[in-house]
Design goal:
6-stranded mixed beta sheet, homodimer, DNA-binding, alpha/beta
DNA sequence: AAAATTCACGAAATCGGTTTCGTGTTGACA
DNA sequence: TGTCAACACGAAACCGATTTCGTGAATTTT
């Protein structure tokens, strides 16, 4: 890289001190107009840009927010990033993005790297493996170092920090209730393993809705998907039973369910209703289009970053973690159109 | 944030100089074993982490790569990011991600912010608006400052730097040839406005394939989509004509075409074949699934970072821009299954 | 026993800025 | 003419590390 022009260069060239240059560039009243003009002209001519590292070292602020996501090729997470970036930028922050790839080890490493002062705070959604392990030491360390931290979507109670989540129980309830209202009785639930708490919460909503309709939960209709195995094959199993509705906790599961239904000769939504989660492009463009629960990832990102910046800039000694719950909406599409 | 422990703190507490501490922590031979043990024990106990800003200021290296994308809620770009992050991390770099949102102004601002020393180099895919304006001054400035820069996918010849692109002409040819081989004669092309060069290049491939089959290009069959307007309505127009094949330059256009075909009562692939671009989830999960040209975003990301890091770490005075062309593959699916 | 090494550590410069505190010069005022 | 304030600028400390060079003491060599 080309040798950058510094304040020192300017000072030497113009025969003044570095303090004068610094002040002149900030239009300080201490410096005479003549000198200011001269210095500013020189700086412009040579396209002087203050070295941000020097500033950061002095102020101990990087104006950077670290974001750690389990993955990115995923409609929900990429939407969240958009929300984060938008607000962060508006407030003068940049974002450093890392991915845990659902791996505990990578999450620990990334957290360590980012917490050495490269960022002012962190926004994280916990990796699957970490949730499974239930080992949150790396997060607890972060909290005890008092590095501002906001968790979103995949959060746990053990970590004392600000959180942004969707109303998963309510969303699960809404989705299931919608199917019940459509006259469906034998509703399959395609969910995640229990350690993924969002899945568990959505299941609670599902069970609540069933109970309200005096339907007994049939564990044969509930299937927990192992992501490492063939997803479609796992979902096919639940179709061996007599079902008339499917509630899938994400859009990939929903799309797979739809495909299987078609292969089995079932008509959607006439013979079977399908509802998904995460309002992504698959749901929108599949045919029939899939009714989903919209998670409002964009809003989540915005809220998370606002919480974080609030925490960064207003260092209150009284630490009371906040939890923001984003309500979710039913996005009605063809896959649950009541035939009546 | 909690007061961080510095080398100075350790020095004072242990009654030695900061240089001794620094050397002891790096296990220098200059320091006696006793002193080293004492200092290292203290550092571990209080969880000392060197301030990365101080290091960066000293070495003038941030070990951060800036990435500017037009958008992120998009299969191709999120895949590229994955590729970038993977290689960058492996080589000890982190990535700072920004979005231009296809806006010229935001691109200029972002470029300015990132080029003040916060990153060692940049990977960029140019915003649509910038391509339209043909105003690349901000990039030329970057180049003249000799800040390492790699452009990918949306690149222009005016900017002298390393580039990674897909073989767009070849890909367009492959896609069109595939339709022709399927016996299609009246193939519509759904592309972007001319200023988006990838669209133009793919069109060249399309025209080349037609010419080879002695088919005259019919401009009525070519439609350039304005993203600001209703996409579906624009595509519907081309369906007013008698067509038996559609080549869409991205998967959203392809998905829309499929939907319209169905609405018109056309059977895919019996009555009409459809082929898209970008091997995303929509193509995979729509029904029938859509044949596409796979762009290998992951590979592009990897290659781009490797070029960039090479440029960052081996400052050669002889600057010869490299251009890597990634070949694309046809991913055969149901939407072009030949009925024969 | 004197000279030469080795050892173990500290002082100070450096990276590129900001900021506090002085200080010499000028002008105004009594 | 002496005093005092305003003005315009510089010296130096500071942020948190690294690194070069120097130095006193201990040890080895001759």
């Amino acid at each position: 890289m080309k040798q950058k022009i510094t304040i020192k260069t300017i000072a030497k060239e113009l025969g003044v001190s570095t303090s004068t240059v610094s002040k002149a560039l900030k239009d300080s009243h201490e410096i005479s107009k003549d000198t200011k003009d001269k210095i500013q002209a020189y700086a412009n001519l040579y396209n002087y840009k203050p070295n941000s590292l020097a500033l950061q070292l002095r102020t101990q602020k990087t104006k950077v927010i670290g974001v750690i996501l389990p993955k990115i090729v995923h409609h929900f997470f990429s939407t969240v990033i958009m929300g984060i970036e938008e607000v962060a930028n508006k407030k003068g922050y940049n974002i450093m993005v890392c991915f845990s790839n659902e791996s505990y080890k990578k999450e620990v490493e990334t957290l360590k790297v980012l917490s050495n002062g490269s960022v002012d705070g962190l926004i994280v959604s916990i990796a699957n493996e970490t949730l499974k392990n239930k080992d949150f030491k790396h997060f607890l360390d972060l909290v005890s170092e008092e590095i501002p931290l906001v968790l979103f979507d995949r959060v746990v109670d053990e970590i004392l920090c600000d959180k942004v989540v969707v109303d998963d129980v309510g969303a699960g309830y809404k989705a299931s209730k919608h199917l019940l209202d459509n006259g469906r009785k034998k509703i399959a639930l395609i969910t995640t393993p229990k350690h993924v708490n969002v899945g568990t919460l959505r299941r609670q909503g599902y069970e609540k809705a069933l109970i309200e309709s005096y339907i007994k939960t049939d564990t044969n209709l509930i299937i927990e998907i192992e992501e490492d195995l063939d997803i479609k094959k796992q979902i096919e199993k639940v179709f061996e039973q007599d079902i008339d509705g499917v509630f899938a906790v994400n859009e990939i599961y929903a799309a797979n369910a739809m495909r299987i239904a078609k292969e089995k000769g079932l008509k959607v939504p006439d013979d079977i209703s399908i509802i998904g989660f995460t309002d992504g492009l698959i749901s929108e463009y599949s045919s029939p289009s899939i009714t989903t629960i919209a998670q409002h990832g964009f809003t989540m990102g915005q809220q998370a970053v606002e919480l974080l910046i609030e925490r960064i800039e207003n260092e209150t000694d009284t630490f009371k973690p906040k939890k923001i719950v984003i309500s979710s909406d039913l996005k009605l599409r063809e896959s649950t159109k009541s035939s009546s």
